[in-house]
Amino acid sequence: MAKVKNNKLKARLPRGFTDRAAADIRATDEMLAKIRTVFERYGFDPVETPAFEYTDCLGKFLPDTDRPNAGVFSVQDDDEQWMSLRYDLTAPLARHVAENINEIQLPYRTYRAGYVYRNEKPGPGRFRQFMQFDADTVGAAGVQADAEMCMMMADTMEALGLKGQYIVRVNNRKILDGVMEAIGLGGEEDGERRLTVLRAMDKYDKFGSEGVALLLGEGRKDESGDFTAGAQLSQAAIEAIVEILDATAIDDLIDDTNNLTFKTAALSKFAVNKHFEDGFRELKLINDLVEGAGYMSDRIKIDPSVVRGLEYYTGPVYEAELLFDVTNEKGEVVQFGSVGGGGRYDGLVKRFTGRDVPATGFSIGVSRLATALKNLGKLGTDDVVPPVLVTVMDGDTEALGRYQKMTQALREAGIRAEMYQGNWKKFGNQLKYADRRGCPLAIIQGSDEREAGEIQIKDLIEGKRLSGEITDNVTWRESRPAQITVKETELVERVKAMLAEQAEDRAKAGN
RNA sequence: GCAGACGUAGCUCAGUUGGUUAGAGCGUCGGAUUGUGGCUCCGAAGGUCGGUGGUUCGAAUCCACCCGUCUGUACCA
């Protein structure tokens, strides 16, 4: 006989995507609710945009080709226009604001959560579909809007139970622009090298000063032997940049008592320029604003090594970082990086409107943060009790109706309950099902009980405990452990009482 | 994309220098037990050894290419 087997379709999930189970969904919902509460309290309103956008609105066409960037999932509509799945929530917001600019009251304060998609190589904790939760203020030019964002990020982290375990670090793109200019990379033609330098700086967490110094100079070889080309900067420039990265506060770098001057050895070989000065002034202002509101440097801190978002940020940039080690399911400490970040993007809406519409906002990586919270035990404690199972002894219509009625009575009393929907003829399987689902109780009524106007309530949790003491199956079956007989009319009341007892036991065990 | 490692049952893995019919544990299903979960015992199903081509009398084993997974690295709005 030929093997039909070969025709079987292989069930497989696209790589970088994941299915989420009940506990995960409930935990994430809980987390989203906490974040939303903070954003609402700050006076932000929700808005939702779709997963797809026209690719040109996302600004992701490759230069010199008519195809979108490979990093975004793209399809062609039936009129041949390119559409792409959004890769963040900021570009679609800019589109939404631009398209509705006449109806929207600026400054527009808004938040939204949603999945975003990146066509990149997935890794541990890195997916091709993941959730972000964003908040933005559109149409506010002053740095007080940026300061507010930083404070809201800090409040969000605390609402999630992370008080004292995070830091919001703030920098300004103008500072970095000033540095680029100072080391001679300020020109139009140096764009590519500037990017290389910024990317190298962004690797500071990963490779430390030495690794970054290599990337700024000759280049770096990784452990598999692969070589990454460097930015070929001068020794003086490399040292100056490393000084910035090593600095823990901006005051370590700058003396502002009389005019602005660099304090450190390598940096002071370069002159302070306009960009740098502007950036510095803005940072100072943010610092004063947040401190004035009571957010000291243990929560929000100026840090000149923050790089972030190379493309569209124009001013202040900020990110939230966790201060504890995150271990994965294998027990290894993983490089976690930031769990959220953002900044000022003054040019994004202008692309559509031609009008200056300054904006600032940040994004929380929901999936990553959820992983971290789970590790801390601050999330994922699934306290939803599985349903009470009403077992089926007789399958005739009338009997089924009675079981269904019992189930309904429990539901009406606010108790999760279900009638067994499998093959009722194998009664053992019904209890096996209940056991594996973790059902707290099973309701049993056969013809004997029926005639006596009674039902049996079986405590499956207590029964499981007792099973350890019984080795003989006949005894196990006949003793009907943890099972009581009650009047049919007392069903709801007795079930309620037994569930309450179990809840009490769980609470005790938890302490 | 680049570099390296690895692909054997649903899962975790054995499989000798290339040699008969590719194994184990766990899980699944059936039975012992038609009205009672767990334990125990008995039995069964489940594999074109990632794919294709090549070398060979003979390939899970050797070679080439492809696909996939993992690790590092690049890119990451």
Main attributes of the structure:
eight-stranded mixed β-sheet, RNA-binding, 511 residues, five-stranded mixed β-sheet, BirA Bifunctional Protein, domain 2, alpha+beta, elongated, Rossmann fold, 2 domains, 17 helices
How would you describe this structure to a colleague?
This protein is of the alpha+beta class and 511 residues long. The protein folds into 2 domains: 22-375, Bira Bifunctional Protein, Domain 2 (BirA Bifunctional Protein, domain 2); 388-510, Anticodon-binding domain (Rossmann fold). The protein has 17 helices and 22 strands. Strands 1-5-6-17-16-13-7-12 form an 8-stranded mixed β-sheet. Strands 19-18-20-21-22 form a 5-stranded mixed β-sheet. Strands 2-4-3 form a 3-stranded antiparallel β-sheet. The longest helix has 20 residues, at 22-41. It starts with 21 loop residues before the first helix and ends with a helix. It binds one RNA strand of 77 nucleotides through helix 13, helix 15 and helix 16.
CATH superfamily of the largest domain: Bira Bifunctional Protein, Domain 2
Number of domain units: 2
Q: What is the overall silhouette? A: elongated
Low-confidence stretches: 1-6
Sheet with the most strands, sense and barrel status: 8 strands, mixed
CATH topology of the largest domain: BirA Bifunctional Protein, domain 2
Radius of gyration: 30 Å
Percent of residues in β-strands: 15-25%
User: Architecture of the largest domain, CATH level 2?
Assistant: 2-Layer Sandwich
Strand order of the largest sheet: 1-5-6-17-16-13-7-12
CATH class of the largest domain: Alpha Beta
Number of strands: 22
Class from secondary-structure proportions: alpha+beta
Helix content: 25-40%
Give the rounded overall mean pLDDT.
89
The count of helical stretches stands at 17
Distance between the termini: 61 Å
